[in-house]
Amino acid sequence: MSSPEPVSPPWAIAPPPHRADAWGLPELSAAVSGPAGPGPDPVQRAFDDGYQGGHEAGLAQARAELAPVEDALARLVDQLQQEMALIRPRAEANLYALGVAIARWLLQREITENRTAVEPLIRRAVQLLPAGSPVEIHAGPSDVEALGNHMRLAEADGRPLQVHWVVDPELEPGSFRLISPERIVDGRVDVALRALYERLASE
């Protein structure tokens, strides 16, 4: 004999089906699940807009405040460039003057140690004079004493050159002047050094 099938009592309620719209309220289901996609956050957007505006305003104010400083710096740079343009020629001139002063000191030392050191210079200067003319050699007392008694000069053809030595107290050792009826050769140390300085400065 088979067992009777269970019968639900009339007050039993069947369980609801597993569906989101089981209650017949689709609008409630949509509200719970939220919108289809994320949208812009109005608070974050307001913050970004405010930050960007404040940043641009700060930059504009900084530029306005630094404009006088930039102008002053530009004028200073321009002034320094002008000063450098003036200083460089002065520095070069001072360097040339120093070189000439050293050359003068070396020459004077050589003449002091060797009283006949100026003899080759006089012989070279004689070659600049026209041949066949008598020559006066003006030199300082010490040079006339050292050279006047033994220095023999000759023409280009070997003939003795007529020379007359003249003591000039104003000429320093190593300086001389050769005077002939046709030409004068200036062998003063100051004149030679000045010509050297001018030549260096003009190059």
Write the layout of secondary structure elements.
Blueprint: H1 26-33, H2 42-113, H3 119-126, E1 135-139, H4 141-147, E2 163-167, E3 176-179, E4 184-186, H5 189-202
Parallel strand pairs: 1-2
Antiparallel strand pairs: 1-3, 3-4
Helix pairs in contact: 2-5
Explain this structure to me?
- The chain has five helices and four strands, in the order αααβαβββα.
- It is rod-shaped and about 120 Å long.
- Strand 3 (176-179) and strand 4 (184-186) form a beta hairpin.
- 9% of the residues are buried.
- The longest helix has 72 residues, at 42-113.
- Helix 2 runs antiparallel to helix 5 (189-202).
- The chain has a four-stranded mixed β-sheet.
- With 203 residues, it is an alpha+beta fold.
- Mean pLDDT is 75; it is low at 20-25 and 28-34.
Short recap of the structure:
The protein is built from five helices and four strands. It has 203 residues and is α+β, with helices and mostly antiparallel strands.
N to C succession of SSEs: HHHEHEEEH
What is the oligomer described by this structure? single chain
Major sheet description: 4 strands, mixed
In one word, what is the shape? Answer: rod-shaped
Strand order of the largest sheet: 2-1-3-4
Question: Please, what is the average pLDDT?
Answer: 75
| Total of DSSP H or I helical runs spanning 4+ residues | 5
Low-confidence regions: 20-25, 28-34
| Residues in β-strands, percent | 5-15%
Rg (C-alpha, Å): 55 Å
Number of strands: 4
Characteristics of this structure?
203 residues; alpha+beta; rod-shaped
